Amino acid sequence: MRIRIALGTGGRAGAGCRRRADSVAAHRASRRNRARSVDHEPATPARHRGPRRPWTGRRPGRHRSQDRPAWRHRARSVVAVGLAWRIGCHRRPETRAWPRHRCPRAPHQGKHDVKAQANPRATLAKILDPISIDAFLRESFGKRPLLIRGQPGKFDFLMKPSRMIFGLDKVTEIRCVFGGLKQATIGPADIREMYEAGATICVTDMQLAHRSLWTAARNVRREIGFAGRVDFRAYLSPPSSGFDFHYDARTATTLQLDGEKTWWYATSPHTLFPTENSTRTDMAAVHRAVARQTIRKVTLYPGDLLCLPPGLWHKARAGDGGSLALNMAFNHSGATVGDVLLDALKASLAGMPDAMRPFVTGAGPTGVAELEPHIATCIAALRDTLASFDGKRLAPRLASVADKAGRT
C-alpha cells in the first residue's frame, strides 16, 4: 500500500530533484543491463520472486533492509517526477496497525465520508433511535415512561453480551438479589454460584470496566447538558428471577442486550424526584402503595429500551432463558436547581466572619444566647442574596454547571 502526497513545484529545488532522479534512474538501468549480459536472461521483477525465505542472518549480496521481514520494512523513496513523495508502508496482517499519519483512505471513502467520521452521530441519538433527543427530553425524560422497540444488536456499540464478564474487578459493587429484595455484596468469584442459586447479579459502574461505556456516559452528559452523573449498570438474571416492586431515585433507562424480561410499572410517579430509593424492609407497605396505582405490563426483547422516571413503582422478571440488560442511570442527586441555589447562598456567606466562625453552646443557656446576634447577621445576608436572585442571573450559572459536568 502506498500513499501519494502531492507537493507544489519548487523552482531550482525541483530541477535539482529531477537531476538526481535522472541519475538514479540511469544507474539502475545500467545495473539491469549488466545483469542481462551476465545471466543471458531478463531479470525477474522483485514482486514475482516468490515467497521470501526465513531470515537467518545477513546474506552476502543483499541489502540489509531486504533481510528484514516484509512487515517490518519501512522503505521511503522520493520520486521527483511531478514532485510527489511515495511512502511505501508494509504491515503484517492483524499484528501491526497503521500509523495514524500514514493510514490509507479506504477506496469507498471520499472527503465527505471522512468529514462525517470527524462528527460521529450522537451517542444518545443511537440509543434512542428512532426517537429524537428533543422529543425524549420534552415528553419523557423525568416525566413518564417511554418504550422503544429495537432490533437485536442495537446496543452492541456499547457492550456486547459476551463482554459483560470482563473487568469486573474494577467496578464499584457487585450485588446478588433474591426474592423480596434480599441482597448481599459479593465478589467476581461468587457470581456463578449466586446465579445458579437463583439470584440476579447487579453490577454497579460498568463504565469503569469498559471504556466504551465510559465514553458513552461522558458523551450523553455533554449531548443533553446533564449536570448530574450518568453511569451504567448490568443486570444478569437467571430464568424466572428478578426484582420485586420498588422505585429508584434516578431516571433508569433499561437496554435489553440478551434474553427476555417482563416489566410491570406504574403510569405515574409515586414521588417526584426522590432523594433515596424506596424502602426494602416493609414490603407490605410497598404492595399497599402499588395497589393504588395503575400498572402496565410489557416484555422487552434484545434491542428494546424502557425508560422510567424516578419515583415510579416497577418490578421485573426474566424469561425462561434468563436475561442480560444494561441500565443507563441519570442520577440527579447534587445536580438540581435547589443544589445550585444552595451553592450560591454558601458562596455569599463565604466572606462573612460571622458565618465562618465555629460556635460552641457552652454548658448553659447563656452560650446559646450569645449566638443569636451572629445568626441574625447571617440571616440578613441571606435575605439580601435571595433578593438579588432572578432567573436571568441564575440561568447562565446552571448552564455553566452542566457544561462543567459534561467535560468531566
Structural features, described:
This protein has 408 residues and is of the alpha+beta class. The protein folds into three domains: 2-117, no CATH class; 123-331, Cupin (Jelly Rolls, Sandwich); 337-406, no CATH class. Helix content is 33%, strand content 22%. The chain contains twelve helices and 13 strands. The protein has helices at residues 12-39, 111-118, 123-128, 133-139, 191-196, 211-224, 283-291, 337-349, 353-356, 365-370, 372-388, 391-406, and strands spanning 2-6, 76-79, 84-88, 146-148, 173-177, 183-185, 200-204, 229-237, 242-246, 251-266, 295-300, 305-308, 314-331. The strands form two sheets. Strands 4, 5, 6, 7, 8, 9, 10, 11, 12 and 13 form a ten-stranded antiparallel sheet that branches. Strands 1-3-2 form a three-stranded antiparallel sheet, with no helix packed on it. A hairpin with a 5-residue loop joins strand 5 (173-177) and strand 6. The chain is extended and about 110 Å long. It holds the Pfam family JmjC_2. Residues 202-349 form the JmjC domain. GO terms for molecular function: metal ion binding. This is JmjC domain-containing protein. Residues 1-72 are annotated as: Disordered.
Question: How would you summarize the topology of this molecule?
Answer:
Layout: E1 2-6, H1 12-39, E2 76-79, E3 84-88, H2 111-118, H3 123-128, H4 133-139, E4 146-148, E5 173-177, E6 183-185, H5 191-196, E7 200-204, H6 211-224, E8 229-237, E9 242-246, E10 251-266, H7 283-291, E11 295-300, E12 305-308, E13 314-331, H8 337-349, H9 353-356, H10 365-370, H11 372-388, H12 391-406
Antiparallel strand pairs: 1-3, 2-3, 4-12, 5-6, 5-7, 7-8, 8-13, 9-13, 10-11, 10-12, 10-13
